Amino acid sequence: MPVIEGTRVPYDEIVALLRDGVPAERVAEYYPSVSAGAALDAADFADYVDSYERPQGAA
Predict the structure, then answer these.
(1) pTM of the prediction?
(2) If 22 and its partner were Cys, which of 17, 36, 39, 48 is the partner (CB 3.0–4.6 Å)?
(3) Which of 12, 6, 14 is nearest to 31 (CA)?
(4) Chain segment 26-49, per-residue pLDDT in tens
(5) How many CB atoms neighbour CB 34 within 10 A?
(6) Annotated domain spans of the chain
């Protein structure tokens, strides 16, 4: 599982916060080791991953 650089925090945990409406500037309240910039980078990575179609029959 990809993590935020320099941490052990999975990127999808951060993206879930952002998609739930938590501003990037407040992510550090939940994960002190994750900066606002890193949170936005995680969102960009998630968008990149989500841009690919899953193969037929994949869950």
Answers:
(1) 0.84
(2) 17
(3) 14
(4) 999 999 999 999 999 999 999 999
(5) 24
(6) 11-50
